[in-house]
Amino acid sequence: MSSINSLVANGGSSKTPKSDDEDDVPADLHGLDIREDSEGWNDIEEDAEELTVKCLLCDDLSYSVSKMADHCQREHDFNIIALRKRHALDFYGSIKFVNFVRSQAQAGNFKPQCEDSAAWQDDRYLQPVLENDAVLFSLDELDDVNETSLDDDGYLSGSTDQNEIATLRAQISTLQAHHDAYREEVSKTLEKRWTEAPDRTTTTADDEEIKYDKSYFESYSYNDIHQVMLQDRIRTSAYRDFIYDNKHLFEGKTVLDVGCGTGILSMFCAKAGAKRIFAVDNSAIIDKARQIAADNQLLQQITFVRGKIEDFQELPGGVKEVDIIVSEWMGYCLFFENMLPSVLYARDHFMKRRSDGSLDGLMVPSHCSIHIAPMADPDWIADNVTFWSDVYGFDMRCMMEGALTDVVVQHPPESTVAGRTKGQLPVRLWDLHYAKIEDLSFETDFVATLDKKIDTLDAWCIWFDMVFSADAPTGKGSAIIDPMEEQQLAKRTGAVTFSTGPLSMRTHWQCGVCVIDRKADDTHALESGSQLNSKLTFTKGQESRGLDVKINWKAEEGDEVGEQLWKLA
Known about the structure:
There is one protein chain. The chain is α+β, with helices and mostly antiparallel strands. It folds into 2 domains: about 5-30 and about 230-255 and about 325-569, Hnrnp arginine n-methyltransferase1 (Distorted Sandwich), CATH 2.70.160.11; about 55-190, no CATH class. Helix content is about 30%, strand content about 20%. A hairpin with a 6-residue loop joins strand 1 (about 55) and strand 2.
């Protein structure tokens, strides 16, 4: 078993994701029944929702925009009505003005200079600073408050109360229309600004990568892929357990969720007390994620942004740093889909830093590792890979195209594993606080020792383990760390781990099975205890999100030797 599984089996303190009736759960992909697996999900009571208007410059709450404007005039000497009239602000100009003032207050400037309207002309002020900002949806109420509504001292007259009541009643029926119009316009403007590619008249390699990226992001626009991920109990519960069991790390913090999908991780963070979460995704699923957050009364904390994280120099509201980055970036054999570079970009550009330049934030998850083991089970190989050679007496081997050159994504039973590395340790362990893109392509030597006699080596099985550590990095560190540290990481207070290996419950990632392409007479029996001196190489595939896996091996004794390349594309 993997080092993580071994630790748990031997009574270590590492916490694996909670699962109901775990002993009775079959080792296949489970459906996620929230009613049965709800521990910790609803441990924070929802506040009653009510319509409130927050002051542009402080935390005071009013029940109408006109009352808020009166408060700004009386308490801050800031005349919203006069400024809108002076600058002849239309609907979108008013939106930019409101977001500009809020961003200034958020930055600590409670007396913003509004003499020149150029200060808020940037399109970034179309993005709300305060999520679900009632002021933005009630600008028509300010239109009803004109100079004649002011008293001799320049304040709003109390005689407008009846008008306010009528306005509020009308506002209830028109609020959704304003909301939809605002969202549509902001979405069009920001999407054009953030995701529109420059015109090109010739085809280049970059064009092909953009086309591939577009196809990749579109694949995440549909429900099926998100349902599969959410129904993966091991995956989803690991994130939930870590976030809920370490609420002290998230309380009052700013979080960036890279590749948010349905927003489940962002909502976990919101429930754990995060002050603000930026959920970024470049697929159309983000529209549904926003609706999901709204349906669960979490839009006040979560800001959804569509686009590639690499295209952002700052986050909405001018936010330039975050305390925590959370992401579910893993693909088959860990690095397929090549999403981790986007997470590392987010870390390098948005993670909070100390005065010496070192990271002062937390990556969730924090560590990842690769495991590999020899496989020997001709019956399993025949049933799952090479059965096309004889189908009811017919030769259908043409259907096997790619079966011996591609990584086969399957979850083989434990019985197929014929040996392990020393100490059942990973062959590579990364600390994601320090890993660089160049660290993701690698070659590493390892020795696999057989634990049973086999007639022939049929395949290699590759999987990954994940560690969620509650310990933030201290100073400088190493991207590649000693594989023996994986067990120590799993023992730390607050840590959560999971494995995708054949000795663990099946996940939607399953394992990567690299079937050896050998002729019928090219077989070599190996005794228990035999050692295979080997090398594993991971390189980026020809397609930008593909992965090439190469394995070299040679038995210390006997004639077994081989070298083969497999692809994930």
